[in-house]
Design goal:
The protein is α/β, with parallel strands linked by helices. It folds into 2 domains: 159 residues, P-loop containing nucleotide triphosphate hydrolases (Rossmann fold); 67 residues, no CATH class. Helix content is 32%, strand content 25%. The protein has 7 helices and 10 strands. It has a 6-stranded mixed β-sheet with strand order 6-7-8-3-9-10, with helices on both faces. The chain has a 4-stranded antiparallel β-sheet with strand order 2-1-4-5, with helices on one face. The chain is globular. Bound molecules: adenosine-5'-diphosphate (ADP) and magnesium ion. The site of adenosine-5'-diphosphate (ADP) has 12 residues, from helix 1.
C-alpha cells in the first residue's frame, strides 16, 4: 500500500530529513515510527501527504507514484489520508459535529452521506454526546478524538498521526491509543510517529525507528528499546 524507494530529503539549511530510506507498509498495518527528536519522523510523514518533497527517490501510495503527482492532484491524495497532530487543529468556531461534517463537505459529499457518516464516526470515538460542543468546551482527549473522527469520516484508508498523544496526560493518551486500535481493527492502516516509550512497549506493533534520517530498526511486535536489530524489508 505504501512504498518508499531510496527516499532522501536534505533541507536547504543542510539538515538531514531522511537519508536513503526504503520501506514497505502493507494495507491494514499498525506502525509506530519512533526515534529521537529531530531524527526525521515528521519529515517521513509529511512526505506521505506531500507537504515535503523528496530530493531523490520514489514514494508509492496505492500503486500511484505520488512524487510524480501534480499540485492539483494533491487534494485527491489527501482524501486517502486522514491526519492528526499533537495540537488537534480543530476549527474553533465549529461544533464537534460541524468539524467532522466539514471534512466531508470539502470533498463534496452529499448532505445525506454527511448525516449518515458523522454520527457513526462520533459513536466510534465515543463522542456522540458531545456533538454540539465547541472545541473549547472539550478536554484534550475529547478534542483529539474529534480530530480522529474527522480523519476517518471519508472512509480514509490510511491514518497518519504525528505525536497524537504529545499534549495529553498518560490516562488520556491511552484513551487515544484505544481509539487508534479500534480504527485499525476496522481496516484502516495506521502510521503513528511517537517518542513515548511506554506506549510503544505496551502495544507490541511494528516499530520502525529512525535515527539521523535512516531506518535503524524495523521490528514486528516490537518495543521501543528492543536491542535486536532486524534488517528491514528492502524493496
Ligand atoms: P522529528 O519529527 O523526528 O523530530 P523532523 O522530521 O521534524 O524530526 O526533523 C528532521 C531534521 O530536519 C531535524 O534536524 C530538523 O531540524 C530538520 N528540519 C525539519 N523541518 C525542517 C525545515 N522545514 N527546514 C529546515 N530543517 C528542517
Ligand atoms: Mg516531529
Amino acid at each position: 500500500m505504501i512504498e518508499l524507494h531510496g527516499v532522501t530529503k536534505v533541507y536547504s539549511n543542510g539538515a538531514v530529513g531522511l537519508n536513503n530510506v526504503s520501506l514497505r507498509i502493507e494495507k491494514g498495518e499498525f506502525v509506530f515510527i519512533t526515534g529521537n527528536s529531530g531524527s526525521g519522523k515528521s519529515t517521513f510523514l509529511k512526505m506521505l501527504y506531500k507537504e515535503v518533497e523528496p530530493d531523490h527517490g520514489k514514494i508509492i501510495i496505492n500503486n500511484k507514484d505520488i512524487t510524480k503527482m501534480k499540485k492539483r492532484q494533491i487534494p485527491y491524495l489527501r482524501r486517502e489520508l486522514g491526519m492528526v497532530f499533537q495540537d488537534f487543529r480543530l476549527l474553533p468556531n465549529k461544533t464537534v459535529y460541524e468539524n467532522v461534517a466539514f471534512a466531508m463537505e470539502i470533498v463534496g459529499a452529499s448532505s445525506k452521506e454527511i448525516r449518515r457518516n458523522v454520527p457513526v464516526v462520533l459513536g466510534l470515538v465515543g463522542l456522540s454526546r458531545k456533538a454540539r460542543c465547541y472545541p473549547n468546551e472539550l478536554s484534550g482527549g475529547e478534542q483529539q478524538r474529534t480530530a480522529l473522527a474527522r480523519a476517518i469520516v471519508n472512509n480514509n484508508p490510511i491514518l497518519i498521526a504525528d505525536e497524537p498523544t504529545g499534549n495529553l496526560d498518560p490516562a488520556t493518551s491511552w484513551e487515544i491509543m484505544n481509539c487508534l486500535q479500534d480504527i485499525n481493527k476496522r481496516g484502516v492502516t495506521v502510521i503513528m510517529a511517537t517518542h513515548e516509550r511506554e506506549i510503544v512497549n505496551a502495544l507490541k506493533k511494528r516499530v520502525i525507528e529512525i535515527s539521523s534520517g535512516q531506518i535503524s530498526k524495523d521490528v514486528y511486535e516490537g518495543g521501543y528499546d528492543d536491542e535486536v536489530e532486524y534488517s528491514h524489508v528492502f524493496i
